[in-house]
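Structure ticket #2291
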Amino acid sequence: TRTPQRTYHHGNLRLALIQAGLELIAEHGARALTLRELGKRAGVSRMAPYRHFRDRAALLEAIQDAGFERFADALEHARLAAGDDFNARMRALSAAYVRFAREHPAYFEVMFSPGAPDSAHRSQPGERAFEVLHQTIRDGQRTGQVRAGSSGLLACAAWAIVHGISTLELERHFTGELPPEEFIEACSSVVLTGLLSLGTDRG
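Resolution: structure written out below.
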């Protein structure tokens, strides 16, 4: 049975290919992603995807950037909704991070997998996502709620902890006695404790 050809308005095929790529990754992982398979899924010619992506790496970069855009939006929304209180903001950011990983596993795999494009840490969407957390840390330092020191280092440490929580949740390694949302809340408290007291007890 031949795959029915789909008709796309100008510019829509690129988005359709990204969506098809996400579906393929969700089903079989990022290693299964090929432009040929995407063309087949989208119902277009074998060469059509190459009009939008020069190769597989370019497609992965596009998926990665789209994922970080949505991720940054989710973090910004969580921070704004939490109000001005630093503790509330950090808890909201932690929950939003884990929620994104749970709800968008295909994006998350491409964004953070070891095989992700080398430009991941330099992409503007990725930097915007990190800056949401970094700015929150700086705000906490200005109000005296976060210890003095390198705001970048503290943001990296907080990011690493919450990312670890997200990865464990995503890979079904979570075996705690608390429901997931309560576990996230408990881990957020651990992150906050480290931000407030890290290094202050050195003799």
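Closing remark: Residues 56-81 form the longest helix (26 residues).
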